[in-house]
Amino acid sequence: MKRLLVAFLLVVVSIPFMLKADKSKPRVNEVAPVLPYSYSQVLLSSPGLRSPAADLLFMNLCYLTGNDVFNRWKERKFTEEEWKRLIENVEVIEKLDPYYFDPLYYLGSYVPWKVEKNRELLLKINSILLHGNQMIKDWRLPFFVGFNYFYFLNDKVKGAKYLKIASQMKGAPFYLKLLVPRLYAESGKIDLAIAVTYEELKRTEEGAVKKELKRRLKALLAIKELDRAIRIYRNRFGKCPSSLQDLVKSGIIRAIPEDPYGGKFYIEKKNCTVWTTSNLRPVKKSTSSR
Length: 290
Fold this sequence. Notes:
This protein is mainly alpha-helical. The protein has helices at about 1-25, 40-45, 50-65, 80-95, 100-110, 120-135, 140-150, 155-165, 175-185, 190-205, 205-235, 245-250; strands at about 265-270, 275. It has a two-stranded antiparallel sheet with strand order 1-2.
């Protein structure tokens, strides 16, 4: 009798959600509306059933963004206001169930590509992901945040900061350890890139990763040496050298160091700083035809 009563109550509390989902269900010639979720209304209509309610709301959200088949396989173009509402709906779902990973994965891996030119929405996504990471310790959450910063928001320093957090979490792929110092280096923060690489070398025990970190460190130290030589040249001659050969001719350095990645160091005239044609990645050697 008790189990029947519980089952009956579950059906009763789910009716509002079923009706809401039915109303928003896409028709063949009709665009389904993106309705805002209300955290307080969900709590009132389904007290004690936060997790099932979160499941149901996320199913509805996926149904909305995955209904291409109803439009002859053409992707639906949501307005920025609709995307804002979808992002806020994920926030409501996470309030209902703070340990629900799937909505955060949806938010981090899919949505940024749809709102890539809207800085406000990208920052909102990052805020929700970071809040979720307080409850769910998964390397992918700070990775998504870091990726959004350096790829969409063009902030490599903040991108490196969160990718570093991701790289130190369980299950993170080894390439993150190499990506972090490269982003710092590309931002002109060579000392920070070197410090991070030294730190990872101390932490890392895996042979192949250690080997790559040593190669990265060698390249970064060469860049730092050349940048120091350029500063000396500018103080002495009052101008940026036209090429790295000027540093050799003036006796500031004996020779231009080799890039361990197979590239060539050069001077970026805009900032009078050193970079490499390899971009700190292995250069494929072209085979000459006989």
